[in-house]
C-alpha cells in the first residue's frame, strides 16, 4: 500500500511539473498585417491612420509584419529616423518592390515609407517600436548589421541600397 501512495505522489508531482511547464511563456511570434484591410497604401486619413493602427498593438522582438500592396503600384522602404522625419527616400536602408513579410530580431524603432513621389508626404509612413520579448534570453549580437529577417520568398528580391 505504501508503494501505491508513493507512486501516486510521484505521478502527482510529474503532472504538476508538466502543467506548470505548459504555462510558461512561449516565444511565438505574432503576425500583423500593416493597416489591416487597408494594406500598405496612401492612407485616406494621412499619417495618423498608420500611427493609430500601430498604437493598437504592442510589438515585440520576433513579431512579423506583412506589408500588402500591388507590385508595380507601390513599394516599401526601410529608412533612418532622419529620412523618415523629412520624407527623404533617396537612400533607403532596404527597398522592396513586391509585398514584404518581415520578422524583427532586435528591440528598436523601425521606420517605413514608400519611395514613390508624394506617398510619404501624404501619410504613407509608419514608425514601430519593437520591445524586447519577455521570453528572449540574452544572446550575442547577430552577424548581420540590420536586425530584421526577410520571411517571404518574394522578399528575397528586395534590394539593399
Automatic annotation (TrEMBL):
It holds the Pfam family Cu_bind_like. Residues 30-132 form the Phytocyanin domain. SUPFAM superfamilies: Cupredoxins (SSF49503). This is Phytocyanin domain-containing protein. The keyword Glycoprotein applies. GO terms for cellular component: plasma membrane. Residues 1-29 form the signal peptide. Keywords: Disulfide bond, Glycoprotein, Signal. One of its GO terms (molecular function) is electron transfer activity. It comes from Prunus dulcis (Almond).
Amino acid at each position: 500500500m505504501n508503494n501505491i501512495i508513493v507512486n501516486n505522489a510521484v505521478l502527482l508531482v510529474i503532472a504538476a511539473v508538466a502543467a506548470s511547464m505548459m504555462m510558461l511563456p512561449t516565444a511565438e511570434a505574432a503576425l500583423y498585417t500593416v493597416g489591416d484591410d487597408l494594406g500598405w497604401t496612401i492612407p485616406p486619413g494621412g499619417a495618423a491612420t498608420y500611427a493609430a493602427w500601430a498604437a493598437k498593438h504592442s510589438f515585440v522582438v520576433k513579431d512579423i509584419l506583412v506589408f500588402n500592396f500591388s507590385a508595380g503600384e507601390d513599394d516599401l522602404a526601410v529608412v533612418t529616423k532622419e529620412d523618415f522625419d523629412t520624407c527623404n527616400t533617396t537612400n533607403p536602408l532596404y527597398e522592396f518592390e513586391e509585398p514584404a513579410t518581415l520578422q524583427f530580431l532586435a528591440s528598436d524603432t523601425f521606420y517605413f515609407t514608400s519611395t514613390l513621389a508624394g506617398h510619404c508626404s501624404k501619410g504613407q509612413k509608419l514608425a514601430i517600436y519593437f520591445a524586447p520579448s519577455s521570453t528572449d534570453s540574452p544572446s550575442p549580437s547577430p552577424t548581420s548589421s540590420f536586425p530584421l529577417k526577410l520571411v517571404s520568398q518574394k522578399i528575397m528580391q528586395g534590394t539593399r541600397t
